[in-house]
Amino acid sequence: MVLQAYGERRRLKKGDAVPYNAQIRLGHIVSRRNLRSHPDYISPISNQQEVICHDENTSDLNDNWLVQRHSYTNHYDNSGYWLADDAITLRHIQTGATLHSHSIMLDNDDNQEVTCYGPGHEENDKWKAEHNDINDFIRSS
């Protein structure tokens, strides 16, 4: 689910459009934990910046992400609003690194590692929103 960024006064309401270049937080619908990263924690598996889900009650600036239209160059078309089928890059506000996926698995289980890494131009830095119910896609907190 999409939440207003930590420290933002403007509250997102269900149905609000999210403009490109907006700061947001992302929450896991089932656990109600926020996606976050921290500059001081490095994954022991990939040596990239660690990404975790963290309790919403202890949210801080490390939970904030910048929504950008995905680009293979340093030029972003950030006009308009984020739509569910748009390819986006999520840039960690505190560190400038982008949310990154790769084929590295965690501790021999079925969980794939996600990190913050690089400038965001790779195929593994491209994300799309998925939702089953628009009422869960944007939540006011």
Topology:
Blueprint (H helix, E strand, L loop, with lengths): L1 E3 L18 E4 L6 E10 L6 E7 L9 E5 L18 E5 L6 E7 L6 E5 L17 H4 L4
Antiparallel strand pairs: 1-2, 2-5, 3-4, 4-8, 5-6, 7-8
Give short descriptive properties of this protein.
141 residues; mainly beta; Trefoil (Acidic Fibroblast Growth Factor, subunit A); 4-stranded antiparallel beta sheet; 33% strand
Main sheet: strand order = 1-2-5-6
- Overall domain count: 1
Alpha carbon gyration radius: 15 Å
Q: N-to-C SSE series?
A: EEEEEEEEH
Q: Terminal Cα separation, in Å?
A: 11 Å
CATH class: Mainly Beta
Our count of helices gives 1
Domain MIR: 15-70, 79-132
Keywords: Repeat, Signal
Pfam families: MIR (PF02815)
InterPro entries: MIR_dom_sf, MIR_motif
